[in-house]
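# step 3/5: fold
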Amino acid sequence: MVGRRPLGRQFGWLWAAYAVSAYGTGLGFGALPLIAVLVLHASPAEVSALSAVGPAVGALIAVPLAPWVEFRRKRPVMIAMDLTRFAAMATIPIAYALGWLGFIQLLVISAVVTAAKIAFNAASGAYLKALVRPDDLLVANTRFESTNWSSIAVGPPLGAAAISLFGPVTTVVADALSYLLSALGITAIRGREEAPQPSDKSPVRAGVLLDGWRHIMGDPGLRALYLNNMLVSGLIMATEPLLAMLLLRQLGFPPWQYGLAFAAPCLGGLIGSRLARCVVARYGRHRVFRTVGTLRAVWLIGLAFVRPGIVGLVTVMTVELAIIINMSLYTPVLATYRLERTPKHLVARTLSAWSIGQQASIAVLTALGGLLADVTSPRTTLTVAGLLILASPFLLPRRDQTSQHTPEPARSHA
């Protein structure tokens, strides 16, 4: 079994740190928009701005952070980003207790947390490539993926219960503390980490900032997967607020059914992530990208046909389950391929460029989806999103480029 393959104590600490942070984030899922609505009585436009503008600004902040992450030891960077997120989130309960909490503060926190998350993920990906043998990268990534989906399945329902019992900032406290515990877990990792040696004394210049995108766009396989990922992730995430409006406002679903419709299918993430290694071994990576990459996109159109009552609830859960099983199988294979195709000295910048592009796509498509829903209706916009995503498989690699290994290129702009 994948789950029993030993990867060493150092990986165990890294995985534990990821797990505690993931479960904290799961508990705090949707906490900022919820606080904006319940505490600050924010308007729909303000809630949309919090969901789109904050992360978009955070992605911009992360652009100059990429080379800073690249040319430093990765464990201190991860610890610093965890402590940054802890400090940012901790200001919410403090300001709430003092009566100072405001919408601008939430917007700033959203941007800071997004930037820190992108930098953390870039550092952790680079550290993972150095920590784990190449043959074990897929095993490691499937463990992260299964942990992520289990945290989403368990966290939001528990978070909703905690908010009902203890107040609106309860889950924010739990989320903040999870970053602190994650930092402690990473601190517990032993072993010397060599400092990267940039060949230029002033690495933060335009060439270095663009090296991640240059590498992605120069590799045919990565380029196709990157463009596909931006479209799929952006359209899927753009449907979340639309579906909330459709289910809660127009179809009259009670909140517990709405939460169940999203939490229960996340258990499918455990199925998909567990299957990844076996499926790759049997069918090959290229077939996984083509077949599973297509299957994760074709189900979204089903959300446009949701109806009231138990039939509508089952429809949402079935569509979400199908999407999540395929996404959780596809994602660790993609993460492993991306690390294998990226030279060591470009990993942090490549992962940052990937995350920034994905975050920007989500922000733009979410904003456009909100505008279209205002002009038409949530159901119409869900239909448009479901039709657009059917074009995404055409962006997947058409030839088997995934079994080739990229040689370490000469260091440019580094």
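# step 4/5: annotate
Residues 247 and 258 are 7 Å apart (CA to CA).
# step 5/5: archive (pending)
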